[in-house]
Design brief:
heterodimer, A: 47 residues, mainly alpha, 2 helices, 0% strand, rod-shaped, disordered N terminus, B: 567 residues, 2 domains, 78% helix, disordered C terminus
Chain lengths: 47, 567
């Protein structure tokens, strides 16, 4: 039970705001790192 | 609940059901019914993914978990953004290019029918078990509100969900998910603002954070490595990544959400949005729980948050004994409230010695209160040995019912129902899709036309709904619900994940090796569950590792040479 994928799906489209998907993925991981640092500082500040 | 609350709740729920039916109109082909014609934009995909993941348990149990155990549960989500990136890079293009209906369909392309069927069956067992819990959570809410037997409430809620999912299919599921997620987010923000506003005069947000932190509730990050510590940075990052990879990469209830995207780009953006927003959202919900904890430091909390159990013991032979413990608990709580105020004053003053003295007194009174509370729970158990000693799931609801203003109570309950509907409907549609596409069409009747499979899909959707209701009747003794859902997932996710990881990345391993490797991996996980004390977050890692190792070994043994990859 498969279908032919639409032709435009096969082309790698650019993500919004970033030039490449790699940059968007880097942004997601950088945000995670920043959140962990902020949560750690939050934990320490109110412990 | 007052009349206005009932009106708000009824209007919200009715609007969801009607919106679902309206949006689901025109689902007259299998592709439309099960994949929404693959024309969803990224924001619909994103909110549908988030709504499916955020079950009612998220809003009944998570704040209670922060109240009882602090915010460390947030670390469980640290692996999620990593998983979103990996799934976007690997799974999305493959699933989309093959045009599959289910993730398991891909496994037949890559391995063989046997591996596809085994994985589909694992999914049906695992998701079939957890969908019962997803219905059970809001049933609990209604039974607390109305004093009804939980069997009746689960039947009523499950029935309502079945109607609109069976009628509207995935289109209805996705669009109502968007509506439900917006209701949920607005409800949670309002609840947070109200919690801060309800703190005693002179106690601000920063004071509340100081109290919560001083009493060990803001423990969001713990870098110490301990295999037996359920939630720390390492278990969250490693175990959490495995759980999220398995959930988003192999669980049809999530795969189906992003398969409805209009293109690879739309599907990827939906996942990435979840990767960006999920961790802050969970932090926020846990912080809400911590603030409710602070609220109950000033306002006397009930000895036990489950009102049904309290009512039961009060009417029993142990009633006088329980009331006596309640009075002592009230007295200790009142002294504790004074100690909390002293602690706040000391923190404001900044004198280290005064702070330490106040903190020491607070710790001592907290321990005393906990001892008295345990005495109360012991009385409950004397009266009924089968009573669940955990009242985590009732904490936030008690706060909502007793302290939020009229109208908002209805809205918050609507949030919980919306969350339940969103996750249950997503799970039901995934179960029905897998049943029809991977089992029925592939093994039972492969010569039917589109209308036949559409009818079978509707029937399957309804049947899984009925099954979920029946299962929910027996879910009342599983402790903290959110953990129960995640533990159930962890028993199976490692194996499923390994099968897909091998499919994506280890081209030399073939179908026979991965099939028997999967059997070995599942046996290893079940053995760990039954005979060891290893925390459940590590089951995914263990299961995945055993499958990959044994499949590699079997591949070497059976062929002694490299198996060519499937195209």
């Amino acid at each position: 039970m498969t279908h032919d994928a639409p032709r435009d799906e096969l082309a790698e489209e650019r993500p919004p705001l970033f030039r490449t998907w790699r940059r968007l993925y880097t942004f997601v991981l950088a945000e995670l790192a920043l959140l962990i640092i902020l949560f750690y500082l939050f934990t320490k500040a109110f412990a | 609940m007052r009349t206005l609350d009932w009106i708000v709740l009824a209007c919200t729920l009715l609007s969801i059901i009607l919106y679902g039916i309206y949006k689901g109109k025109g689902s007259r082909s299998l592709s439309s019914y099960l994949l929404a014609d693959r024309n969803m934009r990224w924001y619909t995909v994103a909110l549908s993914i988030m709504a499916t993941q955020a079950s009612a348990v998220t809003f009944t149990s998570t704040p209670g978990q922060a109240y009882a155990d602090g915010m460390r549960f947030v670390q469980f989500y640290f692996g999620l953004p990593i998983a979103m990136v990996i799934v976007s890079i690997t799974a999305v293009p493959i699933f989309r290019k093959l045009g599959v209906f289910t993730a398991y369909e891909y496994l037949e392309h890559r391995f063989d029918l046997r591996t596809r069927t085994l994985t589909a069956l694992i999914f049906l067992v695992q998701r079939g078990l957890s969908v019962g819990i997803t219905i059970y959570a809001p049933s609990l809410v209604l039974s607390v509100m109305l004093g009804w037997d939980i069997r009746w409430t689960s039947t009523a809620i499950g029935g309502a969900i079945i109607i609109y999912t069976t009628f509207g299919g995935v289109k209805a599921v996705n669009w109502t998910d968007v509506q439900q997620m917006l209701i949920i987010l607005s409800g949670m923000i309002i609840a947070f603002v109200m919690t801060i506003a309800l703190l005693p005069k002179g106690i601000g947000f920063v004071d509340a954070l100081r109290v919560a932190g001083g009493m060990g509730k803001l423990n969001a990050v713990d870098f110490s490595f301990d295999l037996h510590n359920r939630y720390n940075f390492w278990s969250g990052l490693v175990g959490g990544t495995f759980v999220a990879l398995a959930y988003f990469g192999t669980d049809q209830s999530q795969v189906q959400r992003y398969l409805t995207g209009a293109s690879i780009r739309q599907s990827r953006l939906g996942l990435i949005f979840n990767g960006i927003a999920k961790v802050p959202m969970q932090f926020f919900i846990l912080l809400l729980g911590a603030m409710v904890f602070v609220f109950f430091q000033f306002e006397r909390p009930p000895l036990f948050f489950n009102p049904v159990e309290v009512e039961k013991v009060s009417r029993s032979f142990y009633g006088d004994e329980f009331r006596s413990v309640e009075r002592r608990y009230a007295e200790v709580s009142s002294r504790k409230a004074e100690a909390v105020r002293s602690y706040v004053e000391a923190k404001r003053g900044g004198d280290a010695k005064l702070i330490e003295d106040a903190a020491s007194k607070l710790r001592s009174l907290s321990s005393e209160a906990e001892l008295v509370r345990n005495e109360g729970i012991a009385v409950l158990r004397e009266n009924d040995p089968s009573v669940d000693p955990s009242d985590t799931n009732y904490i936030f609801l008690t706060f909502v019912i007793k302290y939020l203003p009229v109208g908002l109570v209805g809205l918050l309950f609507a949030c919980i129902f919306a969350a339940s509907m969103s996750s249950t409907s997503g799970e039901l549609s995934a179960l029905a899709t897998c049943t029809v596409v991977d089992i029925y069409k592939r093994h039972i009747a492969n010569d039917g036309d589109d209308r036949h499979y559409l009818r079978v899909s509707r029937f399957s959707m309804a049947l899984w709904g009925v099954y979920a209701i029946v299962f929910a009747q027996y879910a009342s003794r599983l402790g903290s619900l959110i953990e129960a859902v995640n533990i159930l997932g962890s028993l199976f996710y490692g194996t499923m994940l390994a099968i897909f990881l091998i499919a994506f990345y280890v081209k030399r391993i073939g179908g026979t090796a991965v099939f028997w490797g999967a059997i070995a991996g599942e046996a290893a996980v079940l053995w760990c569950y039954a005979f060891t004390t290893i925390p459940w977050l590590w089951y995914n890692v263990i299961g995945c590792g055993v499958v990959v190792a044994s499949a590699s070994l079997i591949q070497i043994l059976i062929s002694g040479r490299v198996t060519p990859a499937s195209p």
